[in-house]
Design goal:
Layout (H helix, E strand, L loop, with lengths): L4 H13 L12 E3 L2 E2 L7 E3 L3 E5 H8 L4 E5 L2 E6 L2 E5 L5 E4 L2 E4 L5 E3 L2 E5 H7 L3 E5 L3 E5 L12 H15 L4 H16 L7 H5 L9 H5 L8 H11 L10 E3 L8 H5 L2 E5 L2 E4 L1
Parallel strand pairs: 1-13
Antiparallel strand pairs: 1-2, 3-4, 4-11, 5-6, 6-7, 7-8, 8-9, 10-11, 12-13, 14-16, 15-16
Length: 271
């Protein structure tokens, strides 16, 4: 299906023509151009406050010239400067070379693919504001995906340490390992780049894959995905700076000296 500027205008006009049965509550407002498109966008709240919207409807407003299609179990948005895809059940959205995290997953309801409005707006150059009084306000932008805000070198090393440390872990466990690396980068206790954190030897080798050389192995596809998600802001394991697999090590210094945060897969995380 192709969305032209005229079609986007028809969507807005249709919204004007449909009166609300009762005054909308703020949590039931998705304002686009001053008009409430909550029902037209099949919007609903998920997970206690995340606003999900119809991919087809809102992509048509954010990128009017794009084509939306369904192919091999995934929804696609293709336009000038953007190729976006989501698959129901996945916890991410791909847009060009980027991957954006969707903690509650992509939903499929009554034949409609639903995604968080903030993630979709970020993918297509729009912005989202929320207030208790006015609900969600969506402002279309360029309709094109921005370039990643991280470097190829950062992705290269983060994906490798994630893969070497958590090859058999679930996606959340891989994100948690990446979170520890990024938390260290942000902490004054450790070096301030991903590479330097991984190869830090101030208090001895910090990561076993550096010692045994597996950090240089080609990363798994899911580890590359996890690295992209972490570099885009996905986080797990809170403020953790350390992790270990207790069953695989005899060195329990972390367990005895740091505060426990969470267990994900075989790893225990500490801050």
């Amino acid at each position: 299906m192709k969305f032209g500027k005229a079609a986007a205008g028809l969507v807005l006009a249709a919204a004007l023509a449909l009166p609300l049965a009762q005054p909308a509550r703020a949590q039931d407002v998705l304002s686009v151009g001053g008009q409430n498109l909550w029902s037209q966008a099949s919007a609903r709240l998920v997970g206690g406050g995340t606003t999900y919207v119809s991919l087809r409807t809102v992509a048509g407003l954010l990128a009017p010239e794009a084509q939306v299609s369904w192919e091999n179990g995934a929804a696609w948005v293709r336009g000038e400067g953007v190729t976006l895809s989501v698959r129901p059940g996945d916890q991410w959205m791909t847009v060009n070379d980027r991957a954006l995290y969707i903690p509650h997953g992509v939903l499929l309801e009554n034949g409609r693919t639903l995604v968080p409005v903030r993630v979709l707006a970020a993918a297509l150059g729009g912005t989202v504001d929320w207030s208790r009084e006015q609900g969600v306000t969506l402002t279309p932008g360029s309709g094109q995906a921005a370039a990643p805000a991280y470097t190829a070198e950062e992705l290269y090393w983060l994906s490798r340490i994630i893969s070497a440390e958590s090859r058999g872990e679930p996606l959340l466990g891989k994100i948690a390992v990446g979170t520890v690396v990024l938390n260290r980068v942000a902490s004054g206790e450790f070096p301030d780049t991903i590479y330097d954190v991984i190869f830090d030897t101030k208090w001895g080798v910090q990561f076993q894959p550096v010692a045994n050389g597996t950090v240089y192995d080609e990363p798994t596809q899911e580890s590359v995905l996890a690295a992209k998600l972490v570099l885009e802001g996905a986080r797990a394991a809170g403020n953790s700076l350390y992790f270990l697999a207790p069953d695989l090590t005899n060195n329990h210094w972390i367990m005895e000296n740091r505060e426990f945060v969470v267990t994900i897969g075989c790893h225990w995380f500490y801050q």
